[in-house]
């Protein structure tokens, strides 16, 4: 899974039938202590995450289990809205 | 899933038997506020997406479910043609 | 799936038993309008692709379906030999 | 699988129901003889790995098998805490 | 699958129960005509590959099939020890 920030939403009228009831968010993956990059992942969302919120995103079957439909055509979904991150930054990492 | 732009099509006569009836598009993945790059993904398409259209592409079993054949040899497919994207660009992102 | 050029072959005597009858090609992934890079994917091949041919390669279960054995230890296979590619180059892409 | 260092933890109250009992670590992937980078993977953990420990992380179904629930929405998990690594650095590698 | 060179081994005492009997190698992926990089993949091995040997590594279910246990928590395994590679270098590639 990865951490990302919700930056928006997308809409598609002409889509695969098994996706009719899903909401799709744009999520920008983030590292720690690093400016957000410009890559974007499209993730299905059933938790109601809003723009600016930090979320945890999972790929593959994990994503389909998250939206409660193992036979829908998604491979990325928000699996949690993040309350708190407690991490040591790269500068604090002990030498290896 | 990722967002991409359809840039063309490819044809293959000598191919795996389970792919006979499929149409294959070339899709260039895109970030936001970023020039398209030169990487290209080959995605099966049953929605009739045309060159220049923005599409949502899914990988793996999600792709096979999208084309309606769980036993075909694809692992990428167009799952939706995008009508609208509402996203905050990287420059508008709140500091983290 | 991705587009690549067959650049060679590899041989392995000591290998997993379920791979005994397979042929392994070296495939270099390619973008459009871009010089080939030096990364190499090992792909099983049952289509008889030759050095210099452009091929379409699929990963995962799609690859095992392509070689006709869902229980072999491969995760990449040639699924088609490409006859023709019709693509707009990056320079022709409409501004986004 | 990859080698990484545990650098922290994250908490999520609003999450997919099948994740209620899991602990989530932040793991920074590492190469050999190389400074840690700033990418971060979120991995479920049932081994009790602590900050600063080197761990082995697996993706996909392997991760779900590691936490003992094939139907939970994770795709990365700590599968081992590393005691010892015996590796030749890049500078010792024989020319190819 | 990819080609890599075995550069070492790792040991883990505290690990997921389904991994007890496996040997874990460190494999550095390699392109052709290119110096080895510093990225490292952890791959299970049942073929007895030694340091310095070139191997073929597969991911996902292919890896679990290679070690003969579909329910173990690995997603990378050595599937063959390479005897010979016959490849045209990038400089010999016909212009595209």
Q: Please, could you describe this protein's structure?
A:
Five copies of one chain form a homopentamer. Chain A is mainly beta and 96 residues long. Chain A has a single domain (2-84), classed as EutN/Ccml (OB fold (Dihydrolipoamide Acetyltransferase, E2P), Beta Barrel), CATH 2.40.50.220. Chain A is built from one helix and seven strands, in the order βββββαββ. The first copy, chain A, has one helix spanning 61-67; strands spanning 2-11, 14-15, 23-29, 41-45, 54-59, 76-81, 84-87. The model of chain A is unreliable at 91-96 (pLDDT under 50). Chains in contact: A-B, A-D, B-C, C-E, D-E. The C-E interface holds C 5, 7-16, 18-19, 24, 26, 28, 30, 35-43, 51-52, 60-61, 64, 71-76 and E 1-3, 30-34, 46-47, 56, 58-63, 65-66, 77, 79-88, 90, 93-94, 96.
